[in-house]
Specification:
alpha+beta, six-stranded mixed beta sheet, 29% strand
Amino acid sequence: MPDLSILEIGSARRMDVAVLFFDLKDFTATSSKISNEATLFILNNIIPSLTRIIQHWGGTIEKNTGDGIMAILGTETINQQKIAREAIESAMAIRYIMLMEIQNIMSKHNLPVFDFRIGIDMGEVLISRIGVKNMNFITVVGSAANRASKLQSLARANGIAIGENLAENLNEYLYQYLE
């Protein structure tokens, strides 16, 4: 990713990226029935795993929503197929880790096993630094982020919902995996 740490507060960079939203289904209702320590244990197993996956594909966590994340992927290239592929691969890795590792850890500790949902789309966004000196953050503004958020809310349990822009940029060999 271009060095966004040098992005000045109040400025923005226009980029074509993929935006990924991840959320745990019914987290608030379920976590209210367990201890704070158990809730923290769950989050300390999930969020770092997601962060490592996003970083592996050159992405950045734009925000942590408590029981989810918003991530930016594909900022290191202008190749639309590569952006789409990296977004799909990161989502598939998240899905794999959640189903094959995280859920097993939760079961072993007699903790709730959460379903999750992932939404991804791509397009032009503005990436900006907002805040004041020593207290600021990166944010993404654009319809690709809005669509990815909506897709995440529409995804099936443990599923990945992708937008039309992302689907149009997938290599043809990946179409066989789309529903």
